[in-house]
Amino acid sequence: MSTTTPSANSTDLAGPPSAGSARSGPTAFQKRRRRRVLLSAAAAVVVAAAIVVALSTRSSGGSAPGFTVAYGQGNVASADSIIQTQPAISKRIKAKLKFVPFNAGVTAIAELRSGSLQAISGVGNPPVVGAIGTGTDVVVVIAQSFDADALIVPPSITQPSQLAGKSVGVLVGSSEDFELRGWLKLNGLEGSVKVVGLASEQAVAAAYLSGALQGAYVQAGPEAQLVAKGAHAITDAQKIAKLGIPGLNVVAVAKDAIKHHPDVVQQYVCAQVQATRDFTGPQADKYLTDSAKAQGVPGNLIVSATKAFPFIPLDQQLHWLGRPGAVDSPIVKAYAQTAQFLIGQGRIKSAPSNAVLAAHVDSSFVQKALNGGC
Question: Is there a single domain that holds both residue 334 and residue 273?
Fold first, then answer.
């Protein structure tokens, strides 16, 4: 006599098993049904896990984190324009690397605060100190350059004292503004020289040429324009820096990026160091010409302008940044002075302590890069 296996529907028709069958253990049908339930549950777990992985991958953009850097364009190249145009360097940064131009440090700081940027390259004293003073977690990891401005005056002025009673123009609220005011104070001219802040250095040069100003603190193009008209430089940013009032253009990184991806930050600083060696080394012309596209200028302009720019040598990094946490480093002292400048302008209410400023400077990344830790 043949035996047929009941279907899933037939169990409803057959009714519950008898007491005798229950005592004799589960039927073959019950075993198969249990296996189906277990297999279905296991499949559901696998599907759920796959969905979680897919969603997490989508939200994070894959295994490589995003790392967006704001940098300045123009006739002067930087380590960042070299990194962009040299795949051998950029590929060492294990991130989704992106570079975006910026024109104003304050705007870039706001973007970093919002999470749109992870680093700002070439940002000056006031934006960095302003950010620290308003609670934005930025960390300086490498110093790139001084400002390239010079105080341009007529041929008749050869001594600082001759500026007394005169008007001098500068880009308002900038590192240059900070430097100029500091230099005037050192020379006892703080109250006797009128500092006129204008919206651009081109506007400063135009006001000087019109006779409205007797001095102009400007760089590069505007400086050359005024010198061609017979003016000359009585001092410049590098000399002012040596007097203890340095305007330092640095790389500032979001503290959150350091917290979550310290390896990427280290790779980026290593790339900064290598790129600096490249564009200041024996093949500098090649690297600089290659970088022209990233800088948005013709290649024939970039070489001479970059070579004349006051970059901070790699062997001076630890001098300017000091050891981690050092409250007496040159950069902390400069930032403390900048804080007083910003208070005078109403941009921050109180000055961060030297200890707070020092906590936002970390030389360990560049130290490791310089010591072959890349």
Answer: yes
